[in-house]
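FAQ: What does the model actually see?

It sees only this:
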Amino acid sequence: MRMVNKLLTVAAGAAAVAALVVAPAMADPINPVSGKAVVPRACDVVGGGSNTTGVLNDQFSVDYNKPIVKAHPGSQTESCKKFPTPFFYSWDALQNAAATSSPMIATKAGCVKIQRPNGSSAGITDLAADAGGTTGGHPCLDFARSSRAPKTTDPTTVTFVALAQDNLTYASLAHGSNAPTNLTEPQLHAIYTCAVTTWNQVGGKSHAKIHPLLPQPNSGTLAQFEADIGLVTPGPCVVQPTTLEENEGIDPIFRSTNAPNEIVPFSAGRWVAQAFHSAHCIKSTCPTDKSGVNVLCQKPKPGQNEFGCDVNGVLKLNDINGTDPVKGTGSSTVLNPPKSTTNLKGYTDTFVRTLFSVVRGTKTIPKYLRTWFGPRAFICRKESKTIRNYGFEPAHIPGFPACGSITAG
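And it is asked to produce this:
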């Protein structure tokens, strides 16, 4: 059984620093010109789920909606009958996994309020269950974000649509860690099954006890990492803090006495975007607002991403099987392509993952969603630069699903 470590949540930001926070930091459905919150209409397209791809989809929303809003001011609040063109929206996951008491959300006007989908599995479950019901003849949730591949336990009524590529690895303290900077796939399996318990057993210099961590249960990063290392049931030494979201190094556990011996799964793409393309938090502890959804960020500087905040905290990335998940330095850092006969310095392909958008249907994309999802749709056709700005690679790597290709759930 997983040990659950109950920790205090990070304190909410004070009003005195609120002036540093810009509207896009609150990245739930917004007016892309004013940054003010809007309520999606019945005919709009709305998604939720994965934390990993949350801010990327926020940017998709702004990129798609902004020209429409500029050409038709006020159209986001018009009735679907008066202005039938749908807008594209995405509800963020939680940044603080302990904030399960955050306000319930109505994903569209007229929908039944639901718990905010927090993580890939939560989004997929809500999509398949028609969470929130329907409004005006339209589903209340149109797609789910997923950072994991389909599972055999997923409903057969959904289809996974390839979006981008990412590399998975493990992270540890950037300074003072006892963890080796490289571990093999079998070593990671041994650590997370607790077959080995001290660092010297896996090539480390310390005899200290290993403290392996996992993020919240609905995390797609968690599910994919477990699949990649062949982990069915984590061992009794594994800790899963109630507060820990995926791809963040700001949780209080990373400041605990065990921190030098902790490792945790981490998205290399998210780490790159957070380290080199995102605004800093208003404080080093990266507090969230009272909802636990939005990290209080400084205003993005020119050239930084409009959404997202650097929540890498005290963590750095490490190698797997002697291969580096990233290449380059500073702002030129990008994902390392998979290792192959022509790319011997590439990343071990077991830990290269596809990120998905999930829609209703079996091996098909509903007609009304083909404006955004599919090989010739908006995301695959126009958003390659955006995908790279947010740390990932467009899904175009040979041997992996191409952008817009579909896989049955």
